[in-house]
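Example record used in the benchmark description.
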Amino acid sequence: MSRFAGLDIGSTATKCAVIEDGRVVMTVVLPSMPDMRLAAENALRECGAEGLPVITTGYGRALHEPRLGQVSEITALAAGVGLVAPDAATVVDIGGQDSKVVRVEAGRVLDFAMNDRCAAGTGRFLEVMSRVLHVPFDQFDDVASEDVEPLPVTSTCTVFAESEVVGLLSLRHPPARILKGVLQSVCSRVASLGRQVGMVAPVVCTGGTVQSRAVVRSLSLALGVPVSVPPSPQRVTAIGAALLCARRAAGGQLPNVG
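Model output (structure tokens):
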């Protein structure tokens, strides 16, 4: 059999990828909620991957059976980047419930730092701020493109930051200035992870949030280096899981980091 599947069951979205002879032939992204197990089954079905060997990863990686194995998101992310951006030396991933910076080489993890204990610096933080500001995520680019200075958002706790943003709005500060401050806050926390492992160019960023050009610009400024976004950045970890599935089926051992 030459087709293998990778299933990234995240807290916000579930991603499936199918590879054939080392090439990505199908990917899909579905909402994880309200039923993560059902989302995984639906993603496999939409990819035509029912019955294929599968490696799972992500927040809900233990939920799907049967599986050939499971790996951490960091391991799968590195493997996926090795295929879609083989020259990358550092990967920044902003997920729904965590953010991570990973040093990579040839699809393997060299070092990593991860924030999975606080919503600050994650997609969840941006989701809350989007609701408070009444600016949908797909409008971030337009609003943040306004030529205005960001207003600092200093609270590190999501609850306190929400109150801070409400206060700024009550003082009639423009949403564009507040949004830029929010993005600056998120990306500065990600940059602190980068300092822990040492940023080495080229740098690529992945995850659903980096589909916003405004997030990518803010991230590049916070890191102090240019960053690039590979095709389908939300699906890279699922692609990596599929690659690892093929290696496992061929008799290789599964690495597991993080």
